[in-house]
Predict the 3D structure of the following.
Amino acid sequence: MSAITLESVSRWYGNVVAVNDVSFEVGPGITGLLGPNGAGKTTLLHMMAGFLAPSAGDVRLDAAPTWRHPEVYRQIGFVPEREAVHPFLTGRQFVLASARLQGIDDPGAAADRAIEMVDLREASGRAIGGYSKGMRQRVKVAASLVHDPPVLILDEPFNGMDPRQRLHMMDLLRAMAVEGRTILFSSHILEEVERLSDRVLVVVAGRLAASGDFRRIRRLMTDRPHRFTIRSSDDRALARELLAHPAIDSVELRDGTLSVRTGDYGALTRVVATAARSAGASLLELRPADESLESVFSYLVRR
Amino acid sequence: MIATLASVTLRGLLNRRRTLLLVLFGVLIVGVAALSRLSEPTEGDALEFTGRLLADFGVAVLLPLVAVIIGTAAIGSEMEDGTIIYLLAKPIPRVLIVAVKLVVAWLLVVVLVAPAIVLAGLVGTGGSAELGVAYAAASVVGALEYTAVFLALSLVTSRALVIGLAYVVIWEGVVAGLFEGTRILSIRQHALAVGDALGGDGAVRAELGVGSALVVAAVVTVLAFALAVRRLQRVELRGDTA
C-alpha cells in the first residue's frame, strides 16, 4: 500500500504560477485528476513522479521525497502524455529495455506479461515508429507496469484510443486497482473520470477546486443553475408558460433568442413540452448553453 | 542494465542519418591521402604532407566535427524528443547513465575517426604506420575530451550543436591561432600534442607539451563529466506545457 502526499505544493515558472498551494493525498484505488487543458495537471503529475521540483511545499511517496530520488521508480510506473517513444525499437524491445533498466529478475517474462496485459502481443514485433496513437499509448503503459509497481501515474492515458481500446484500458486499470494499487490518471474529459474513478481531484488554474467522492462532485456540478436556449414558433408565449413553472428561475428574451435558467436539470426537460403545448408553440430547438467543461469548472471554482 | 543502456544509446545514435554521413568524412581523408600519392612524392614530402593532413584535417576538422554531432546527441537527442523520460523514470543512478552514454559516444567517435586516420596515414606515407597510429591515438584522447564537453553542453543548453561548432571554429580555429595563451584551453591542441609526441619525424610540431596537454585534458574531461551528472540529476521535465 503506497500513498503520494502533497503538502502546500506550488510550482511557478518565472512569473507564471502553474500550481498554487495544493495539498492532497492519493492512496490505493483509482483517483482521477480532472481539469481543463492548461490547468496544471501535467505539472502536478510530473512533480508527483519526481520529474519536477516543487517551488514550495513537499511531494512524497510514503516517506520519501520524489524529487531527485531515483529509487522511487521501483515503486512508481509513469506514463507520460507525450507520444515520443524510441521509434527504432519494436514494442517488445521497448518493454524489455524497461524491464532490464528496472533491474528485475527475468525481464523477458515480465515484458511478455506486460505486453499481454495491454493486449499488444500481435504488434509487439513491429517497430514503434509504425504504431498508431492508441498502440503507442498501450506500449507506454506496458513499459510503465513491467516492474509491477504499487503506484501507477498516467497522464491523459486515453488520448488517441478508440472506444474498444478505451474500455480495455479501463478494465485493466480497474483490475490493477482491485489488487490494491494506487492509480492516478489525468483527464480533461468528465466522462472518463466518471466511469473510472472512485475519487476525483478537480484542478482549475493551478488550484485544487474540489476533491473527494466523484458522486458528490458530480452533484455539485449538476445542481448548479443550468442555462438553455430555446427556439420555437412562438418564443414569447412559451416564455410566459415556462415562467409560470416554479422550477424555472428566469427567462430572457433577447435578440430573438429565448434563454431559460433552472436549478433543476431534469425539471426543464419535463416541463418544456407541456409548456409548448399550452402556449400553442412548436419547439424547434432546445440546447444547453453552458455545458462545456470549462463552464462546469469555473462554476466549481466560484463556489 | 548497463548493456541495455549502452545498446539503446548506440541504436539511437546510429539511427540518425547524420551519423551515417560522418562515415563519408572518413572516406574523404583517405581519398585525399590516396590522391597525394598520384604525384609520386619523395618520402620526405609524403611524410610531411601526410603529417599535415592527419593533424590539420584528421584531428582539427574530422575529429571535432564527428565528436560534436555524436557528443551532443548522446543525451541531447533524447532530451529533445522527450524520450529521456523513459530513462529518468528508472531507478538508475544518474552518474551511471552519464558514464555509459559518454563511453558509448566516445567509442563511436573513435570508431568513426581513428581507423580513417590510420588508413590515411598508411596510404599517404606509402605503408608506414607510425604517423597514422600516432594521430589515431591523438584522436582517441581528443575524442574523450570533446565528447565529454559536448555531452555536458547538451545538458546545459538546447543549442549545444551550434555552440559546439562555434567553439571548434571560432575558439580553436581562430582565437587559439591568434592568442598563444588560449591554446591551453583548446582540445585540438591537447590532441595534437599527443600526435606530436608519438608521431616521429612526420608529425606537426605541437604548441603544447604532451604532459601539460594530458593533465589539462584529464581535468577538463572530469569537470565536464561532473557537470553533466549534476545537470542530469536536476533536469526538469515539464511535459507539453514547456
Chain B touches chain A at residues 1, 3-5, 8, 11-12, 15, 81-83, 85-94, 233-234, 236-241 (CB under 8 Å). Chain B has one domain: 2-235. Chain B has a mean pLDDT of 94. Residues 43-74 of chain B form the longest helix (32 residues).
